[in-house]
Design goal:
By secondary structure, the chain is mostly helical. It has helices spanning 2-19, 24-46.
């Protein structure tokens, strides 16, 4: 899951270098995605 996310991030980074900006909405989506994944892992570890 995290490896997939890293791949998506690197693709987005290359796209953003071409565009030379990052959408605020994309930052929010990425942040929410990360928080969701961290919560999921945390719940699995704490069981």
């Amino acid at each position: 899951m995290f490896h997939y996310f890293d791949a998506v991030c690197s693709i987005k980074m290359h796209q953003n270098k071409a565009n030379s900006f990052i959408n605020v909405e994309e930052k929010w989506v990425i942040s929410l995605f990360l928080i969701d994944k961290i919560n999921m892992v945390w719940n699995m570890l704490s069981l």
